[in-house]
Amino acid sequence: MTYKTAVCDDSPADCGHIRKLLSQWAQLRGLSIHTETFPSAESFLFRYAEDKTFDLLLLDIEMGAMDGVELAKRVRKDSETVQIIFITGYSDYIAEGYEVAALHYLLKPVNREKLFSVLDRALEKRRQEEGCLTLELPGELLRIPFYEIRYLDVRLNYVTIHGKRDHTVKRTLSEFEALLDERFFRAGRGLIVNLAQISRVTKSNVFLSDGTVLPLPRGAYEPLNRAIIART
């Protein structure tokens, strides 16, 4: 796995310092890391529109027209999984990070040991949440965390992935089945359901925790129940 990070800071010296520390941390941990740097929030958003697969953002709070907090709010509208670390010269901004679930704040000048400790936490959290479905959509590459996917169903030659938003692509359900992990159950030819999203099962229906009711194919009741029990 290549750990994708972005550093957004209007100070070239601070950007270079943090990038160097990220490289040192990755080397010590035996990780492959890819880091991109940006001089402004606007320049990062331009890149983010093309690629939303970043694992970690290190954002300076005090920048130009758009600050780091506003940038984080915009990113959060697209992703709840990307981890955010704020970097600031002042402690006054700490309360503002609660709204975007910031992982941590680091005061400038960034201390090597403190940054490494926060990066270790970020990596552990990333590993716990690991597992994403990558979709190539017109004009963008989208990564959907497994835990957000409620179910997938098929109609004609198209599969719809039902998550926070629905995405329909021309692929087979079997292709997606091969990409998903043990938390997903294939029920018949037309349905894959996330076991963690199920609240109740009858012989004819599957009830999801958000209120969705899915028809259960004949013969799937007992295998589905066994799969649920195996995960508890």
Rounded Rg: 21 Å
Order of helices and strands: EHEHEHEEHEEEEEHEEEEEH
Strands of the biggest beta sheet: in what spatial order? 2-1-3-4-5
Give the tally of β-strands. Answer: 15
Helix coverage percent: 25-40%
Features:
about 230 residues, alpha/beta, 6 helices, 15 strands, elongated, LytR-like, DNA binding, LytTR_DNA-bd_dom, Stage 0 sporulation protein A homolog, phosphoprotein
Molecular structure report:
Helix content is 30%, strand content 32%. It has helices at 12-29, 41-48, 68-76, 112-128, 173-179, 221-231; strands at 2-8, 32-38, 56-60, 83-88, 104-107, 132-137, 140-145, 151-155, 158-162, 166-169, 184-187, 191-194, 198-201, 205-208, 213-215. The protein contains 6 helices and 15 strands. The mean pLDDT is 89. Strand 14 and strand 15 (213-215) form a beta hairpin. The protein has 232 residues and is of the alpha/beta class. The strands form 4 sheets. The protein has a 5-stranded parallel β-sheet, with helices on both faces. It has a 5-stranded antiparallel β-sheet with strand order 10-9-8-12-11, with no helix packed on it. The protein has a 3-stranded antiparallel β-sheet with strand order 13-14-15, covered by helices on one side. The longest helix is centred in the N-terminal third of the chain and has 18 residues, at 12-29.
Could you give the topology of this structure?
Elements: E1 2-8, H1 12-29, E2 32-38, H2 41-48, E3 56-60, H3 68-76, E4 83-88, E5 104-107, H4 112-128, E6 132-137, E7 140-145, E8 151-155, E9 158-162, E10 166-169, H5 173-179, E11 184-187, E12 191-194, E13 198-201, E14 205-208, E15 213-215, H6 221-231
Parallel strand pairs: 1-2, 1-3, 3-4, 4-5
Antiparallel strand pairs: 6-7, 8-9, 8-12, 9-10, 11-12, 13-14, 14-15
